[in-house]
Amino acid sequence: MKNTTNTTIYMSRGGRKDTKKRIVALRKQLAHAMGELRELDRADDSEGRHARIEKFERINNLEAELVELETRLSTAKLLPRKRDALKVALGSVVDLVDQQGRLMTYTIVESFEADPSDGRISILSPLGKSLVGKSVQQTIEWTSGRLAPRKLQLVAIH
Fold first, then answer.
1. How does strand 103-109 pair with strand 120-122?
2. CA-CA-CA-CA torsion for 8, 14, 18, 20, nearest 10 degrees?
3. Residue 150 contacts residue 96 (beta carbons within 8 Å)
4. What is the reported pTM?
5. In DSSP terms, which residues pair with 140 in a beta bridge?
6. How far is 14 from 17, CA to CA, in rounded Å?
7. What does the alpha-carbon distance between residue 128 and residue 132 come to, in Å, rounded to a whole number?
8. Which of 113, 79, 107 lies closest to 93 in space, CA to CA?
9. Residue 65 and residue 67: Cα distance in Å, rounded?
10. What three-state secondary structure class fits 129?
11. Rounded distance, CA 73 to CA 69, Å?
């Protein structure tokens, strides 16, 4: 997926590292799939025709994902280390406290880099949208689907 718009895509250092790891893994999978295809071609039997077609599709999918990630990596700008810590923006690391007093830390990232289980939330997610432009000590309230509105206190921006 090429960035055909004039919108700048930003990537965190962690996202850049994860993308590079994924590219390495895809290259290995692609080499393995191509080796398997060569083995199927050597067998040259009619029963292996379906397996060859599936392998071609797998190779095409791997190549497409590889091109997308390499393009993203080559065109994305790295988020700067220092961010304006007065208001939440793309690249901000925020500390939030819920109503039960639990502390949560999230990094605000582009959608393609989001992984809530790793503390990275999309700037386009309901929480991400609610956080952008907020300052420390503000209460963030958002809804997600049919769930009741949730409230969090913004306690720090890094």
1. parallel
2. 70
3. no
4. 0.60
5. 152
6. 5
7. 6
8. 107
9. 6
10. helix
11. 6
